Amino acid sequence: MNDTIERRSSPVVAPRVWAMPDTPRARALGKELRVAREQSGLTLRQLGDLIGCSEAKVSRMETARRRLAPNSVRAFLDAVDVRGANRDRLLRLAYDIDEPVWWESGIGLPTQLTELIDAEKRAVRITEVSEVLIPGLLQIPDYARALFAATDVAVEQLDRLIAVRLSRQRILNRGDPVRYLVLLDEAALCRAVGGPAVMGAQLRAVLHACEAPNVTVQVVPFTAGAHTGMDGPFLLLEFLRSRPIVHLEQRRCGAFLDDPEDVTPFQHARSRLCRTALSPNCSIELVAAYARRYECWEGAAHGDGTLAEIELQR
Predict the structure, then answer these.
(1) Nearest Cα residue to 55 out of 63, 71, 43
(2) Which site in 42, 48, 243, 295 is 20 to 30 Å from 149, CA atoms measured?
(3) With the CA atoms of 126, 132, 135 and 139 taken in that order, what torsion angle do they form, in degrees rounded to the nearest 10?
(4) Which of 282, 300, 139 is nearest to 204 (CA)?
(5) Would you tell me how many other CB atoms lie within 10 Å of the CB of residue 106?
(6) 212: pLDDT strictly greater than 80
């Protein structure tokens, strides 16, 4: 009885969660290992003989159905003669798999979001096309909170979702920051999400982000008329070794496209939008003009009227 009481009174320690096989991160590493083996000309069986395991085990490593331990990855890379910076990068991925992955730790995030987070972390270049919203990677907490509240997100989930969104933004200022291009319709600057004060602060945050050499914002002005970005928002992610993917999102569901025939039209759309949009410098001037107008609007009108009633001096 005493033993039972002691066990019940002991503090409950939450289990530490580790990345397991078949996570987005593991699948990405597995794909890169497969590419490296194919480039070396080795078959699954030949590689297995070199590293002392079965053909089936090598296959499970490449498809992330087996845990990718750093020692196994090191042996794999030695066998296929991957050296230098690429070897170091792949080994870092392997060691990262052994780190706790907080967004996979049972806090209830959708699978689509965890896969998007992982893809953003691995990308070397991200292009985001947005029609009516400031993209999540540039959002301030008050702007994100207003968006979540407008889409009926439960109050008790707001802080957690905002924290996730802010954590995603770290890819913009890490040691090897991703190159981030935003192609933004002018309509996104007009919609006062959260009110004039919040919107003014949000646009100031966009201007601050653009000071970094890896972040570029180009605005497609109303004067451009119809343009290909009006087909819908999208996220184009490009990687060092893997082929690019597109992420499409609608409300609380999303989809990834990775077939080259599906991705190519979005790459063409990016090129056309870059030509249609204002230059980065002119775009910054327009964003700054909207920021000033929101600040004046808040001070003079206290939220009355619409920003469309204020003529922008371009």
Answers:
(1) 43
(2) 295
(3) 160
(4) 139
(5) 10
(6) yes
